[in-house]
Amino acid sequence: MQKSSNREHFLSFNCVNSRVDQVTCGASHGSVLGTVLFLIYVNGLSKCLLQAILFADDATVYMSSRNLSCPIKTINEEVAILSDWFNSINLSLNISKSNYITCSQKHQHCENNISIDGHQISHKSSVKFQGVIVDQYLSWEDHSKYCKTKIISALFVLKSSRKFISEETAKMLDYILIYSRLNYGILL
To answer: What is the pTM of this model?
Structure first.
């Protein structure tokens, strides 16, 4: 693979240009090289004990255990390895966006301390994962409330625009705004 050299970049916004800087690492957005490098980068995640789900620039890692008092030591060790791995390939881990959830159907709560590079990761009772809100008891209550709010807003839009649009357009909007939202979680 040939390394690009002497590349520069700058930002232009409202006819104002930033200073020109040398690109020291990375690949151009949308380039074939960028896609290949990303695949090489994420290939290393398979060496981690934690399971990984990747989507665009998000990485979700998880681990399951029958015992809630659990694998916290293992998780902290694996997260440290993951952090080192990210650093070694010049990727950054946004700790302020990092959080964790402990899921159990038995309504047990297990407060654990997970940290990355000495920074405490916040424990959440629910998280949004690929557009679906998952709560710690896997009840889907939070996600149902979220969907209900979105669907009520969509119904208001449909009702308000009904006199200005055709029946065919109304059906399309219904499919886009309501049906797709109801169907999405089922597909996951």
So the answer is: 0.66
